[in-house]
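We modelled the chain as a single entity of 311 amino acids. Its sequence is:
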Amino acid sequence: MDMERLTQLPKLPSRPEDGHKGTFGTVGIIGGSIGFAGDEESLRARMIGAPALAAMGATRAGCGLVKVATPEPILNAVLSLCPNATGYPIDGNSVSVLNRLASECDSIVIGPGIGTSDEVFGLIEHAMTLPTDSRCRSLILDADALNVLAQLDPSSHTFTIPAVLTPHPGEAARLLQSLGLNENPAGNEEARIHACQALAQHFGCIVVLKGSGTVVCDNNRAWVCCNGHPCLGSGGTGDVLSGIIASLSAQSVNSKELDLLYTTSIAVEAHACAGEDWAHSHDLQAGLDPWDLALCIPKSVALHRQSVSSP
């Protein structure tokens, strides 16, 4: 199927002067893992920072509220990194926590630092079947949520609410391989567009194929990011991006002009421009801390927003 190539993105609406935290959208984050020791095959890493970085990305991109759900043993550590967030403990009840967040949040991110335990498989399967009348209007799957998705039965790959997948080339390759597709997510621009398109059309959702020249596709549209900087090639920057995507989606849930493809693409460009801003202001090629990246997000998002005086 031929795709429409988008070359320009619309502006985000200006913020109403009488707005408050209840009117700027609520984002939920489910991630983190406690890890455990064992033999070489069962040894798993503890991951605390990823959900906190996603929460910080969401906050810096302007959403009103952030709610973070992580395994109970690491919840306080995660909240110490993002004290503005509300915390929900996961103790063998991730599905019930997801249901709670789906009733309270406009957008939910699943995956940063979450690992690939059996419980995560059940969580992802349930996320794909969230009720269409839930408050949640967009679901963002990132990191290990994508690796779990690649191991599920392809016949079950149907989302009941709008979804965004955010694979890097390695994760995209695993998804494509699980579908028996030979597209190359690490090739030139055209190859990456074809790979992104194939995933978007199979899953019926939006796919963000990360990397230099990030590609964003839905069933029939494609946009390629022309901004970015090599400093973004650092662990944690993708977690910040997933939070930005969720944040702009949550803030635009009632917009008639901005659909999920547009808000996702604006998030990708704002993230890329924030990396450029950090690199230029520090005159550096590398060494970007994802927390410093998050600090650059408000300015970068503002450049993609209408001024108050705009019609």
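As a brief sanity check on the tokenised model: Residues 260-282 form the longest helix (23 residues). The CA atoms of residues 121 and 275 lie 33 Å apart.
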